[in-house]
Design brief:
The structure holds two protein chains of two kinds.
Chain A: E1 4-6, E2 11-14, E3 19-25, E4 32-38, E5 45-50, E6 54-58, E7 61-66, E8 71-76, E9 85-92, E10 98-100, E11 104-109
Parallel strand pairs in A: 2-11
Antiparallel strand pairs in A: 1-3, 3-8, 4-5, 4-9, 6-7, 7-8, 9-10, 9-11
Chain B: E1 5-7, E2 10-13, E3 19-24, E4 31-38, E5 42-50, E6 53-56, E7 65-71, E8 74-79, E9 88-95, E10 109-110, E11 114-118
Parallel strand pairs in B: 2-11
Antiparallel strand pairs in B: 1-3, 3-8, 4-5, 4-9, 5-6, 7-8, 9-10, 9-11
The chains are: A mainly beta, B mainly beta.
């Protein structure tokens, strides 16, 4: 059974702080790793994808991947109240299903 | 592109009734996924298709659920008979499995979802 684990939260951070979200996965064959953001009552939307070990930065977001440790993380710098949402980690092996974690609920306090 | 289009957005029905959810994937995408999301169980895969062929339906709860993809631009998820425990948000998502793993095409795009309430 392929599993993706995340801390369910809620994770509360003050506005302007760094939010750190973590994810571990069980399938060593996973090749693609994604972070989706889901606002309440909305559908998941992609914010970051990462395929190689190391860091990938996009604006205020940085994804980090360590395949040896089967670990993916997302850092959100200068957190804003609009970042308050549930963040879903997803992993995929080419041609196979996308497995989602349970999500971490982030609350950014003004 | 209009994105992944799902209908209906909301459905309220009574136990025992048939429910049909519809999905139009993004044009050119060759893979389609049906997920169900509840507070208790999160986002669960029900079934996915590659090139209109069902690849993995192990997530379909039981025989009451069926899914079809008669062509590249349309899929249905049917529940018959429906039960209160089927109440959830059902998402359809599509992607283009072309190129290489990291080509950027291997990205799952979700529809707005269909919120089902079975009384």
């Amino acid at each position: 059974q392929k599993e993706v684990e995340q801390n369910s939260g809620p994770l509360s951070v003050p506005e302007g702080a760094i939010a750190s979200l973590n994810c571990t996965y069980s399938d060593r064959g996973s090749q693609s790793f994604f972070w989706y953001r889901q606002y309440s009552g909305k559908s998941p939307e992609l914010i970051m994808s990462i395929y190689s070990n190391g860091d990938k930065e996009d604006g205020r977001f940085t994804a980090q991947l360590n395949k040896a440790s089967q670990y993916v993380s997302l850092l959100i710098r200068d957190s804003q109240p609009s970042d308050s949402a549930t963040y879903l980690c997803a992993v995929n092996a080419w041609g196979q299903n996308f497995v989602f974690g349970p999500g971490t609920r982030l609350s950014v306090l003004p | 592109d209009a994105g992944v289009i799902q209908s209906p957005r909301h459905e309220v029905t009574e136990m025992g009734q048939e429910v049909t959810l519809r999905c139009k994937p993004i044009s050119g995408h060759n893979s389609l996924f049906w997920y169900r999301q509840t507070m208790m169980r999160g986002l669960e895969l029900l079934i996915y298709f590659n090139n209109n062929v069902p690849i993995d339906d192990s997530g379909m709860p039981e025989d009451r659920f069926s899914a079809k993809m008669p062509n590249a631009s349309f899929s249905t998820l049917k529940i018959q008979p429906s039960e209160p425990r089927d109440s959830a948000v059902y998402f359809c998502a599509s992607l283009s499995q072309a190129g290489t793993v990291d080509s950027g095409a291997n990205v799952l795009t979700f529809g707005a979802g269909s919120r089902l309430t079975v009384l």
